[in-house]
Structures are given as structure tokens and as C-alpha cells.
TrEMBL record:
Spans through the membrane: 21-39, 78-105, 117-136, 148-169, 190-212, 275-294
Domain ABC transmembrane type-1: 82-294
Domain of life: Bacteria
Keywords: Cell membrane, Membrane, Transmembrane, Transmembrane helix, Transport
PROSITE patterns given in the database record: ABC_TM1
Subcellular location: Cell membrane
Protein name per UniProt: Carbohydrate ABC transporter permease
InterPro entries listed in its UniProt record: MetI-like (IPR000515), MetI-like_sf (IPR035906)
UniProt-listed CDD domains: TM_PBP2
The keyword Transit peptide is assigned to this record: no
Topology class, membrane: Multi-pass membrane protein
Record-linked SUPFAM superfamilies: MetI-like
Length: 309
């Protein structure tokens, strides 16, 4: 079988070369704009705090130090809070994706007579909510205060995730589901053995959304578990460290040396700016490590899940 001729660069027309040059330039600028904030935060977090106050830190630390990370991780509760954050991320993502997929499968079936009404009811919750105080009273009345499950149960069903999964399921060949029913599989077995494996790309996408939301969440800890140190999360502990550093500086009239006079080395003081940069890196690294493994499914799931609305 003859191979199709490959156009060499020297045979390209001037318009093609201009397009390629503009495309490379645009993608290079996009890469720089995307990576620079993170690399700048990394440089600030690895630079001495009193030197960072002067400014001029871009992509590389001017005075390298680990003092900022030492200050953050010396807190006794950080490692336990990291464990709680990881646990809520894994448990919350798995249960939420499973429940959202069951709901999406249900409202995607044409034989379900209430699917249109239920879909509209779900979509309305994206525009209207009960408010903070009613939600707090509800959580208190059902006994979820000071418990781990307050991180999981209220967010089990995400309407946006349900709609993405439903669109993906509606695009599956109906013949596959019919053949499963002919073979004697019930609705749950069809869902478990047929639908979920076929929905792997969109499930990976939704899992990433849910995991990032669970990992970054701290406000629910503040509302429901702020008095329970054993259930505190990494994000909440980092927020408290930053808040304490800001309070110390404000109480000392902006004098960093007086605010952090208890530091082991006065040459390596910490500032709210350096702590904020360090916190950003610490909170981002786990998600960055997971994303490459889900990138293929993430792109495919977003493409196929958005074909039908």
C-alpha cells in the first residue's frame, strides 16, 4: 500500500509558514503565561523571606532556603491534617462519582417517566440554594456536626457532574445495553458491568473535578469541625498559619522582625508573602502529581461528555 507523500517544510507555501510561526509563537506565549505564576510562587517559597520583600523574584530564588517549608511543616497538626485531607479526597471522590453516575444513568433512561422533571429540579439547584444558615441548621439537625462524614455526604451529588455523565451515557450505543438485558442482566448489573466501564473517560474527568474540590475545601471545616483538631484538614491548617502570620505582623505595625522574633534564625524570617507562596506549592503538588495519569481520560471525557446537552 503506497504511503501518502509528506510535505517537507521547504515546500510549504508562505501562508503555511506564517501560520506555523504564529501558532508556535501563540503556544509559547500561552505556555509562559500558564507556567510563570507557578514557577514564580516556587521561587518565592524557596527564597529567604526578608529578601523576597524587596521584590524582583521571578523564576529563580535569589537567596535559596528551606526555612519557609520548615516553618509550615513544623506545626504538629500538619501531617495529621494532610492524612485527613487525603482521606476525604479519596473517599469523597469515589462515593460522589459512584452516586452521580447512578443518578445520571437513571435520568438518562427513556423508560423513566419522571426523568425530565427530575432533571429540571436538579438544574434549578444550580441557580438557587437554601443559603448558608439553612444549610448549617440542616447539618446540625441531622447530626453531622463534628464528624468526618460532613465532608462527604452533603456533596455526594453534584448536579454539574451528573449532567456531564448523563450526556456521555446518552451517547452510548443502545444496542449494548439491550444485549445485556437480553442476557438477563438487571438494571443494577447493567449499570455496574456495562455502563461504568464504558464511562471510564468521563468518570476520570469527574473524579478529577471532585478530588480537586475536596482537596482544596476548607470552609466546611471552619463551619462544622473547627473545634475538632482530629478532623482538621491541610487547607484549614495552612489557612490558620497564614492568618496567624498576618495577625502577628499587623499587631507589630508591619515589623516582620518583631512579629517573628521567636524564629531560630533572624536571617531567615518568614512573612505572609513567603508563607502564602509555600502554602500554594504544598497544596498544589498532590494534584499536579495525579493529573498526568488522568490527562488522557480528562481530554477525552470533556470532549465526548459535551457532545450532547
Amino acid at each position: 500500500m503506497a504511503k501518502a507523500p509528506v510535505m517537507h517544510a521547504r515546500f510549504k507555501s508562505p501562508s503555511d509558514r506564517i501560520f506555523d510561526a504564529c501558532n508556535i509563537l501563540f503556544m509559547t506565549c500561552l505556555m509562559i503565561v500558564t507556567l510563570y505564576p507557578f514557577l514564580n510562587m516556587l521561587a518565592v517559597s524557596l527564597n529567604t523571606a526578608n529578601d523576597s520583600v524587596k521584590g524582583g523574584i521571578y523564576l529563580w530564588p535569589r537567596e535559596f532556603t528551606w526555612e519557609n517549608y520548615h516553618f509550615v511543616f513544623k506545626e504538629a497538626t500538619i501531617f495529621h491534617a494532610t492524612l485527613i485531607s487525603g482521606l476525604r479526597t479519596v473517599v469523597g471522590a469515589v462515593l460522589s462519582v459512584f452516586c452521580c453516575t447512578m443518578v445520571a444513568y437513571t435520568i438518562s433512561r427513556p423508560e423513566y417517566v419522571l426523568r425530565k422533571f427530575v432533571s429540571i429540579a436538579f438544574i434549578l439547584t444550580m441557580y438557587f440554594s437554601g443559603g448558608l444558615i439553612p444549610n448549617f441548621l440542616l447539618i446540625r439537625e441531622i447530626g453531622l456536626m463534628d464528624s468526618f462524614w460532613v465532608y462527604i455526604i452533603p456533596g455526594l451529588i453534584g448536579v454539574f457532574n451528573v449532567m456531564i455523565i448523563r450526556s456521555f451515557i446518552e451517547g452510548l450505543p443502545e444496542g449494548i445495553l439491550e444485549s445485556a438485558r437480553i442476557d438477563g442482566a438487571g438494571d443494577f448489573m447493567t449499570f455496574l458491568r456495562i455502563v461504568m466501564p464504558l464511562c471510564l473517560p468521563v468518570l476520570a474527568t469527574v473524579s478529577l473535578f471532585t478530588a480537586v474540590s475536596q482537596w482544596n475545601s476548607w470552609f466546611d471545616v471552619f463551619l462544622y469541625n473547627s473545634s475538632n483538631v482530629d478532623l482538621s484538614t491541610l487547607q484549614y491548617e495552612l489557612m490558620k498559619i497564614l492568618q496567624n502570620s498576618n495577625t502577628s505582623v499587623n499587631n507589630n505595625g508591619g515589623d516582620y522582625a518583631s512579629a517573628f522574633a521567636g524564629s531560630e534564625n533572624t536571617a531567615n524570617l518568614v512573612t505572609p508573602t513567603s508563607i502564602r507562596a509555600t502554602m500554594t506549592i504544598v497544596a498544589s503538588v498532590p494534584i499536579i502529581m495525579v493529573y498526568p495519569f488522568l490527562q488522557k481520560y480528562f481530554v477525552q471525557g470533556m470532549t465526548l461528555g459535551g457532545v450532547k446537552g
